[in-house]
Amino acid sequence: MEFTAKQIASFIEGKVEGDENAKIHTFAKIEEGVPGAISFLSNPKYTHYIYDTQSSVVLVNEDFVLEKPVNATLIRVKNAYECVAKLLQVYQAALPKKSGVSKAAFISESAKIGKDCYIGAFAYIGDNVEIGDGTLIHPHAVIEDGVKIGENCQIYPNVTIYQGCKLGSKVTIHAGSVIGADGFGFAPNTEGYDKIPQIGIVTIEDDVEIGANTCVDRSTMGTTIIRKGVKLDNLVQIAHNVEVGENTVMSAQVGVAGSTKIGKWCMFGGQVGISGHINIGDKTFLGAQSGVPGNIKGNETLIGTPPMAPKAYFKSIAITRKLPEIYKQLNELQKQVEELKQTINNK
Fold first, then answer.
1. CB-CB neighbours of 258 under 10 Å
2. Which pairing describes strands 26-27 and 106-107: parallel, antiparallel, or unpaired?
3. What is the C-alpha to C-alpha distance for residues 19 and 40, in angstroms, rounded to an integer?
4. Which of 57, 150, 245, 313 is positioned for an S-S bond with 264, CB 3.0–4.6 A?
């Protein structure tokens, strides 16, 4: 498909600066631009590329100031990053979708498959499964007995969804993820550990995306809940009976221990660790590798272990680096104090 700068600007409510008839048919990073491509500039670190890029059109923020002329046609918008995301969504939606049921798939006779679904080769669909219209189940996915999946979902290869779990509509689960494995529940005894049966389920609401090789454990009783709009990166661990609030996002290798409640619109950086049985309030922002041992009220930006305000954290890091020198100075001062004491006592 081919579009003009004018057509694109009309769609994203932007203003063309340059040739409104410039044609584009693909996307490219600004540093790898080619004729016929559209790129975007939102990070100031990449500003210098705009003067040499070969892309035909570049999206920029309204307040971007040119230091010299450019060859590309510019489209000025309120938020270039948001607009390119919108365009990419339209592009992806226009791509042909897989359809039909492979003869190599296994589908239980009691399963209910909606309209316009795709079931790939060697996928397994268990007893009493319900799959909504337009949902795509890719090869080697395993959907166990009693699972309910809504409309227009994407279940990528080698995903396993254990028995009884429930997914809303527009849910995407990437390759290798496991939904509904047993929570980590064991009771110690004199000879080892007794397993605590995990008889609950996982509930995933609408418009959730879960990255590759992420695990969401089933609850001991009741349900582990991933609320509407949540986005989980690759290699995230959500333990049993956790509740993740609406529109919360987590980067790779975040781990959340059992029975913790996380609020809405939170953002966790990579490798954040959350202890169990605590509450984290809405709009909590945690920097990478933060360790959270207790409750957080919300509406805070924190980093470190235990988490603290960024300014205090970086001050403490600066002091920590000086500790060897401070320790040496302290020893010297102690020696001087002892010498003064001896001098005074000898008088």
1. 19
2. unpaired
3. 17
4. 245
- 327 CB-near residues (< 8 Å, 6+ apart): none
- For residues 123 and 158, give the distance between their C-alpha atoms in angstroms, rounded to a whole number: 9
Active site residue 48: no
Token digits of residue 129:
């499964």
Residue 238's DSSP bridge partners are: 216, 256
What SS3 class is residue 183? coil
Radius of gyration for the chain, computed over Cα atoms and rounded to the nearest angstrom? 27
Over residues 292-345, the pLDDT tens digits come to 999 999 999 999 999 999 999 999 989 989 999 999 999 999 999 998 988 888
Between strands 215-217 and 237-238, the pairing is parallel
Could you tell me if 118 and 133 are in contact, meaning their C-beta atoms sit under 8 angstroms apart? no
Number of Cβ atoms within 10 Å of the Cβ of 272? 25
> What residue type is 243 in one-letter code?
E
Q: What is the pTM of this model?
A: 0.86
Alpha-carbon gap, residue 180 to 158, rounded angstroms: 14
Q: How many CA atoms lie within 13 A of 145 on its CB side?
A: 1
**pLDDT per residue as tens digits for the range 92-126:** 888 888 889 999 999 999 999 999 999 999 999 99
Catalytic residue, from 25, 48, 140, 240: name it.
240
